[in-house]
Amino acid sequence: MRTSVNLPAETLAAFDEVWEAEGFDSRSRAVREAVREYVERHDRLERVTGDVVAAIAFDYEHATVIGELHALQHEYQDVIRTTAHAHEGEWCLETVFCRGDAAEIRELLYRLRDFDAVGRANVMFLERVDGE
């Protein structure tokens, strides 16, 4: 099936360098592999259930989104235990340490990813609290 995707020129150039260095025979093959890995990562994330301890790390453009991020973190204060914050020029790196229901922590992650000014947001589940 054919589809089209709009990407910034520099992102596409970097992607082309990677797939060529990895020896894929075409951009299409590399895109199929990247999409498959994305779906698999999402499936693994969705399978985590119950009470968990997790760390969500994300980077963002400070001036653009700080107020909205603080408001979001207040919405999830029942699962957020503490945060760590570092500045890197106009960008910030933040880690939010959580404990609570996996579904609520996933929801927080997805909402963080929805901000245009957030570059990346990744979660690491540190331990299963419910014994599974």
TrEMBL record:
What is one GO biological process annotated to this record?
regulation of DNA-templated transcription
Stretches assigned to the Transcription factor NikR nickel binding C-terminal domain: 55-124
Q: Which residues form the Ribbon-helix-helix protein CopG domain?
A: 1-41
Looking up Pfam families in the UniProt record yields:
NikR_C (PF08753), RHH_1 (PF01402)
Protein name as it appears in the record: CopG family transcriptional regulator
| UniProt keyword Transmembrane, yes or no | no
Q: Which family does it belong to?
A: Belongs to the transcriptional regulatory CopG/NikR family.
Molecular function terms from GO = DNA binding
Q: Which UniProt keywords apply?
A: DNA-binding, Transcription, Transcription regulation
- Record-annotated membrane-spanning stretches: none
